[in-house]
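Figure caption, in words: inputs first, then the predicted bound structure.
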Amino acid sequence: MEIFNALNHLKKENLPHSIMLISEDEHNLSEASSYFAKMVMCDSPIVDNTCLNCKKIDHFNHADVMIYPKDKQSISVEEMIILTQDVYLSPYEANSKVYILNNFSNTSALSQNKLLKTLEEPPKNVYFVLNVTNESKVLPTILSRCQKIYLPKYSSKDIENFLKDKDFSTQQKNDIVAFCYGAINRAKEFSENPNFFDTLDFCFDLWKNLRVSTKVLPYASNLYNLKNNFKLFLFLYNAILEDVLNTKLNMIDLVKNQQRIDEYKIIARDFSEKALLLIAKELTKINEKLERNCNQNIVVDNFLLYVLEVRAKWQ
Ligand SMILES: [Zn+2]
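Bound structure (zinc ion present):
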């Protein structure tokens, strides 16, 4: 798999003591960090997935591969202090120790700071893997002490494989593959959400049929009812927008969901490039408003009216 190729240039005899894996996909990060642990621990020169060390890593029960945070969302200051003391203890069963630090971009600056000294001079045979979804939230001092590795996204084939045994139609599988943008955790989220396809249908309906202000109210009340799926709605509505924009600009290769191209062409006839760009900008603002806990229903009303307005104004 491609994500392992991102690590395979590292030499077993000369592995970096601190690496930072960067990807927006937590599933991707989890697989790659386990693979790095195997590179350290495996009995064979090339990861074989069959030795006892590899098997234990696969089952998350290797005594010398420590995964943090233990039970919280991110590593607290207290936990980081314990960790930095733990690194000096000898390994239990292997010759080395690997610390996998999940969700590192959500670790507070205070907590990240506690790790600095250890990263600077790690004990021999101790390796750190920092799993990062958002590089901008990591202290520059930490960044500069790690070898950064950007993980490639999963290919459509990988995602199709993941969906293979799921009970979806071909069209439904295509939609998940296209809109998960190469992130398996997103494909998983979509496939486990019983409202995913309804929300997607609703997005297409909205793009195609919101033409007059009398329709704002019924669409708005549908949106109020989405509740927990409102973020999903925004994500999908924006994904469709990107595809429509690329269709409009004749950059068909960039259209993610090729099966929907006829629908995109219909929508693209109704919106000018300028209108689409303005709507895209407004969508970013909505995400910010929601983070500031603005009233969701007011945000919805204003947004639908805005879509109508820019569509009419920039024909
Ligand atoms: Zn092995």
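The chain has three domains: 2-150, 154-192, 193-313.
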